[in-house]
Amino acid sequence: MAIEYLLVTFPEPRAVLADGNGVGFTNHTLMLPTDEYLISLAGTGYQPPNQDIALSGTSLVKPMVISFTSTGARAPATPPSASPGGASERRSEGKKKKKKNA
Amino acid sequence: MRRSTAWLVACLLLAGCASTHFENFPLSGGTENPERRAVDVSHEERPLILVAISGGGSRAAALGWVILREVAKFRYGTDGQTRSLVDDIGVVSSVSGGSVIAAHFALYGPDGLERFAPDFLVPDNMRTIGINAVDPVTWSRLAITGASRIDVVEALFDNQLFKGKTFLELNQPGKPYLILNATDMATGEVFAFTPKRFDDICSDLDKELISSGVAASSAVPIVLSPVAFQNFSASHCPGRPIPQWITTRLNGRFAPYLNLETFKLARYANDLRQGPNSLRKIDYLYFVDGGLADNLAIHGLLETISSPYAAPIIAARDSGLPAGATVLDALNMGKIKKIVVLVINARADAANTLSQSASRPGIVDMVNSVTSIPLSATTASVASQLEVLLAQLNAAAGGGGPGNPQFTGLKVYAVKVDFDQLRDGDPHHRELRAKANNIPTLWSITQENREVLEETGIVLLHQHPCFQRLLLDMNIAASFIDPSFAKMGCRQSSD
Lengths: 102, 495
Prior knowledge:
By secondary structure, chain A is α+β, with helices and mostly antiparallel strands. Chain A has a domain at about 1-70: Immunoglobulin-like (Sandwich). Chain A is built from one helix and nine strands. In chain A, the strands form three sheets. In chain A, strands 3-2-5-7 form a four-stranded antiparallel beta sheet. In chain A, strands 4-1-8 form a three-stranded mixed beta sheet, with no helix packed on it. Chain B is α/β, with parallel strands linked by helices. In chain B, α7 crosses α10 (about 210-215). Chain B starts with a helix and ends in a 6-residue tail after the last helix. The longest helix of chain B is centred in the C-terminal third of the chain and has 35 residues, at about 365-395. Classes of the chains: A alpha+beta, B alpha/beta. At the A-B interface, β1, β3, β4, β5 and β7 of A face α12, α16 and α17 of B.
């Protein structure tokens, strides 16, 4: 199992979701296993809605960098799991995003 | 004589009529199994300790017990109080014999360690099993209920250790995250007794007897019958959505090429959930010894750190992390500064004379080889995955670009204890190793062998450079620490 490095840029701190699960925050390098992920952010007000990435061949000094841009709407900086619903809400957030993209 | 023959015939007939005894329960309302445990990572000085305990019958249970008891002796200051290292164990993964002590520790905590020897290691468990196995009452019960040989062992675990307690009592705040690993006999996949895995089969983990999980993890094939489960996905969770991580893997263009292991994990989860385009139709599951898929129980630790089955166990309190965060989340946010992986390997390499014999080996030796060599190879493969992961975590701690200050200062301690680490050059070590390797894989262990493991376990732990390094970095004094050996043998990128 290899670890890769991902940097998700966004104008403000936001929780980064990989397949709907929170894995860290924007503008900080994140460690994730080599794999394919659907990356999105917590909350709303960003574009594109998600990005399908093949995360491999990175290093700590050369992480994969992907960017989201703000559409101006405000949103919470923490993932939905910060609410009492926890992990199950995190999963349902992933489902909502998927429906939104369909 | 005639009466007992009639009794036996009746039992056998009943056994023929009885249906299989399934040991799991459906999840009511199609909801998810809750996760109530919460590992506190809000104190930077505290390490997070992940433990894996291998298989090996009572030898493994005893070695695990010795090591846990020894770890408990080391204390350090935090928040104006002293705290034992054993309280920092957040995750315990186990297979087979290791599952007996792992589940006992997870249920009763460090305070229960003193009870483990009189309750399990001292009694002659093989005698108890033997008496039960020939008892006509047992036979009739097995016949009527559809139970099987494994139930005799399960009853032993329950009567002596777990007293009818269920996983509900394990899944509580303050308890370590326990991963009892079994092997799905039909697919060869690891099946862990965890809330997320039970979600896959729409089964209620809270209602499951702990002894059932331990028995599933230690059901040695042929000698014991498998533990039988039903898959309730179709009957009790129809139409539920498939989690996004599964659909991303199964429908993704790159997933099978980038990470075949996780792709197969997703495919198995989809099969268990009876999702679209299933590879296999799984209505029933039969579990055998978890050691068949990974005899070091490392798979569970890998999943805990970096897989979709990562446990959402990191406590939100004061840590700045959202509720339900995983170990990887906490690492990514720089909330864990010391991670310790303690792997307890009780594998015994009993001496044989094949290499000195001019006679061609017989069928027993061949059966022994074809069962043990692939098992060791599979285990070694999983172990090397963990080593790569830990090396990469250690490398990340060395720092890099401007976006990763959170990894700086992370320390990784890989403490793997193994009888092979006893030195050839030391006559006493050689003697200990020979004795340890000759301890049979049974559910009983003699007092002499227990004493061998007590000495061996302590020697192995104390001499490990990464254990010494951990104590050194935490300012825990111990006479056996050799600072230069610890620093050389357990280098940190942050040094």
